[in-house]
Amino acid sequence: MNAQPYLDARRRSDAAQREVLRRTLEEREPLVIVASPPGAGKTYLVESVIAVAVHHLGLRVAVVAPRAEQTYDLMRRLVVNFDPMPITALMSAHRQLPDDLLQTQRILVCNDATALPGVAGVTIATADKLLFAVTKITQSFDLLICDEAYQLTFATLAPLFELAPSALLVGDPGQLPPLITVDTERFETARYRIHWPAPRELLRRFPQLDVVRLPASRRLPQDTVNLVQPAFYRQLPFSSAAAPAERRLQLDAATQGDTIDRALDMLADGATLVGVLLPPAEFGLEHVDDELAETMAAIAARLLARQPRWEGVRQLSAGDIGAIDAHVASGAAVRRSLRLYNVPTDACVVETPELWQGQERPLMVVKHTLSGQRQIDAFGLEPGRWCVMLSRHQIGCVIVGRDGVGDVLAEHRHDCGARPIGSVDAAWEGWRAHQAIWSQLEAQGRLLRIAQG
Amino acid sequence: MSTIFDLAARLLAYQAGRAIPTRRSSALMADPIPAFAIAPIRMVAEQVVYALAYGGPDDKPEIVLTWNPLDRDAGFLEPFAAALDRYLSDCVTAGEMPRVWLAHTAALEVIELLGHRYRTNRSVGPELQRMGAQCRLLAEETTFAGQQIVAVAGSLLAGHVATGQSPSEDLHLGALLAWIDPPAGTAVVDAAAQAALAPAAAMLARAADDRVEQLRARVASGRLREPAARVEAEAIIRAELLREWNLLVQARRAFWTLGLTQGPELTKLSAESFKRVAWQIDRNYGSPARPRSLAQRLDELTYAQELAAYADVADDPIVRATALSAGRVLDATIINRDQPRRGFQPCTLTLETCQQVLRVRAGTQLQLRGARVVGRITEVRELNAGQSVQLTLVITTGVRNPQLPAPGQRTDWMEPEPADLRYQKRQVYERMAASADTRVMGDTLPPARPQPADDDLATIARRLRR
């Protein structure tokens, strides 16, 4: 197979990273926005900028991310990948660094923003923590970096701008938007869309801003990109930087020949997104569907039973399989079923898309967000949620659901009521993305149905 | 309310032939004395008001009306403006929460219309401008979840009972009332259908509207003298207005006769509502427009929503049971309490539950219902092949609380009361406004400040990696 397209993708990716370094640290542009598809090396890029800024240029850098776990992950990577640099974790007194980070003794924990070191180095905090510290910080930074910027509202990020003359915002525009629980329609007509993801609002206000688009996903195989990119990233063309030969699944143990095995065989044959469908439920199952949870667990268990191997890389174990369920309660049912199949749930993690953002596994089992629904709701249609679920795998992903999703999508009547000009109709975008993915899977014969009974 | 729960409640109501309560506690604090009620009538398809009935809901209403609102003379509203101002200002001055009753959302739309129309209207006097500001304030208040100032009877009733008809049929207050208090000798479905023939939408009935329109046209064409036409039109409007007023009075009475309890968390919602209105009563604020005010408004709305949701679960057993079935409330027995020094940290509880649906995981914060005892889940373990679940909960607040549960005790845990961080955030937004960073406020970005590097930075980045 010709590896040239994948090498070219990597070269384009390197060029984009070089551009970010130049514009952020040489040009010192006041605002650089990087739009990244899933697995394109966002955190790698952020690490590189921090290392050059601190080690080479002697700058003071502040880095924020939406969640504490994301900041810990960045700290880990800085500690492991680079020579020691001054790293300060700005965090609340009631929080503690994870043990592995404490043991490195390379991170200064600071609970008081007035006591932040004034020398070159990087200060890492959640966006909320730095937000509340703004009024106490006396010495400005040279550079503000925001990782996963599309998960933060403009309201959260805007007060942080005054901390540094240059800001670098890196994020994935296709993933979940910031969580806002109130009706925001009235804010859609305001001059400032403070509830929008920060990069989106900044691009609306400064349309001349040249966005750096990372052009290649190092995580997703091209087969997945072919489905996910047109559905969720129409404004962000990208390809895979991983050649199919690097993402091959080998199943060493014999097959039982049932539907689950046929789905796994399809994965091994190079189809990276396949669906396993149960018969439609008699009643709409709002959240918890025990039979579906059991099927998800059965798929994970069967994968392990068939001794999966990432060809040329390693034997795969329970820790290489992840599961996503959009609801906490039904995720618990999946965990319960996994235990019944003796699959360790501390290794085979079951979580919601919100917590899977920024993570990856070779193999994923995900529950379709519209499974069992008779009427589609906005939660199920949210495109970011579905996008996260379909973009965590490096080798393959099995979608599990109740049959009938295609019918529900076809019967869905979209509320075409009046909307403020310029507002994004997430429900419509979600319907479109769901429809595109489902029809492609159906047309390509990737939906396998488990017979009744 | 979940779809299944709502459907089941409606089926039960249908079977019973009358509405059934879906809450045991009221989402509305008891009426202050005095309360104020407004029943408006607007012109169909025009943004103008025919008439308003107002006053104490237990009293005979005052009425202001015009038979020809298209002449743009708003002077007839002045007595209403004075009465509304007197009521709201007296309440705020006395530190008492005001309560304004409206029949339905259509009436609320008229109040919003008055606010929009007169708040900054230079062709009317300061009294009507103030009325506009106060009407806008009332309409704005309804956007806050759990607000206690404006009671929209139809929405309140629909939120506390389930009928045997569809949610869209419930939007007609008359039909909704027929289900709550079915007339003897008539099938409730027929009674509701009959009630729905008369409008409950702050408008004249079709025949009345046609007649008033006809009278105006005849006067305009000189075929009828104005005094006679006016008398007849005003009588029609008055009768229609009193129908709306009576609907409001009946709906309010129906709500209070549901016999719902008053939960303790309602006082927090009332205090929030009062603070908002008292702060703005003399300030004719427009819609937020700057980043600072917009961000503050978003915070206010979010906090109100979280507090209202918390109060609902804390105060109402039916809401709590629904939350429990969705896993948002945890019903668990205390198995062990590990607190080496009584009254001090650390304190760890072991809980066990057989609840089918759980919405907790490591890191979830929970509050003991009815007490300031808060903890964080650190571990979730399944027992007996998934028949029950054991949870480890580290208590973060309330280790000295006498209500800290002891082993053997059965407990309800729920999402904690939301933290009120609005003051700190306000300070942050003020600082943001003062700094006037062009990336936040400006239309153009500040210029770049190039600092040429000697070497290729990407190469340096690669070299720096281990």
From TrEMBL, chain A:
Domain of life, source organism: Bacteria
InterPro entries assigned: Coronavir_polyprotein_1ab, P-loop_NTPase
Any Pfam family hit: AAA_30
Record Gene3D superfamilies: P-loop containing nucleotide triphosphate hydrolases
Molecular function GO labels: ATP binding
Keyword list, A-Z: ATP-binding, Nucleotide-binding
PANTHER family (alphabetical): DNA-BINDING PROTEIN SMUBP-2, DNA2/NAM7 HELICASE FAMILY MEMBER
Name of the protein described by the UniProt record: ATP-binding protein
Organism: Candidatus Chloroploca mongolica
Upper classification of the organism: Bacteria, Bacillati, Chloroflexota, Chloroflexia, Chloroflexales
From TrEMBL, chain B:
Top-level taxon of origin: Bacteria
Protein name: Uncharacterized protein
